[in-house]
Amino acid sequence: MSPERPTALLIDAGNTRAKFGWFDLIDGARESRTEALDYDQIDGLGSRLEALGVRPRRVLATNVAGPVIGHKLEAVCQQQLGLPVQWLDGNHGRDLLHNRYRTGQLGADRWMGLIGLLHRVHEWPDWTRGVPMLLATFGTATTLDTIALRDGENGSPQAHFLGGLILPGPVLMARSLADHTAHLPFAEGTPTDYPVDTHNAISSGIAAAQAGALLRQWRNGLRSATAQAALVFVSGGGWPLVRPEVEHGLARAQADLGLPLRAARHLDNPVLDGLARLALEHGMPRRDG
């Protein structure tokens, strides 16, 4: 992306690190490349952007890492980029997606991810037919959230966030067993049907738990008023650890029910997609100097 064109820096401050990307403020195209920094590396943000040829004119971010990280990001962006951080959370984008979650409880990253997913699917025929869309994010925590087109209060179709699950992510599950049992290791095994060693037994149990939770939410669409199986989207650093189990379980469930095979689709970072969508949707103030 040419540095002469005005760009916006997008930051997803997650539980363990900050992911960032950027997009063109003129045509709204988000650069597909995503970078990441551990929080002890945040002071290197400016030099990393300079090396990439990115000179942002706005900074939009979401934060679930807490106020200390938030203040650090604000200080770095102000000192190194000369820009304030525009924080976005569940209070933004409610005109795009009806939020049934209790006010103030929904994590900003979950909400932005759903806005990003909605932007991707809102013109798909499946979406307009009311097919649910399930976003599974396998990070420090695993979240399983569903959106669907449903009748609004005025009787017109409206995008709804139906709700979702939170459970420990794959690595957190493994770490919990290692830290809180006397004899179990931090597992680095391979999921198998009938494990015969401890590492594989733990890895298989974790993968089964993650896939089982996803399939629970997937099947909920079949029990809804529209009785349609959700399309599944996946993201997060823990996805490779559970991918075979999820893909096999989803394919088997679809075959058992006589449904066409529709594989899970990987999304690089739906949170950044959501930030980009809201920045353009609401025409937030930009710095052009």
The percent range for strand residues is 15-25%
- List low-pLDDT spans: 284-289
Q: Helix fraction?
A: 25-40%
Shape: globular
The CATH superfamily title of the largest domain: ATPase, nucleotide binding domain
CATH class of the largest domain: Alpha Beta
Tell me the Rg in angstroms. Answer: 20 Å
Write structural notes for this entry.
With 289 residues, the chain is α/β, with parallel strands linked by helices. It has two domains: 7-87, ATPase, nucleotide binding domain (Nucleotidyltransferase, domain 5); 98-271, 2-Layer Sandwich (Nucleotidyltransferase, domain 5). Helices cover 36% and strands 23% of the residues. It has eight helices and eleven strands. The strands form two sheets. A six-stranded mixed beta sheet has the order 6-9-8-7-10-11, with helices on both faces. A hairpin with a 2-residue loop joins strand 7 (133-138) and strand 8 (141-151). The longest helix is centred in the C-terminal third of the chain and has 23 residues, at 198-220.
Q: Topology of this structure?
A:
Blueprint: E1 7-13, E2 17-24, E3 35-38, H1 45-52, E4 56-63, H2 67-81, E5 86-87, E6 98-99, H3 108-121, H4 125-128, E7 133-138, E8 141-151, E9 157-168, H5 170-180, H6 198-220, E10 231-235, H7 239-256, E11 265-266, H8 270-281
Parallel strand pairs: 1-4, 4-5, 6-9, 7-10, 10-11
Antiparallel strand pairs: 1-2, 2-3, 7-8, 8-9
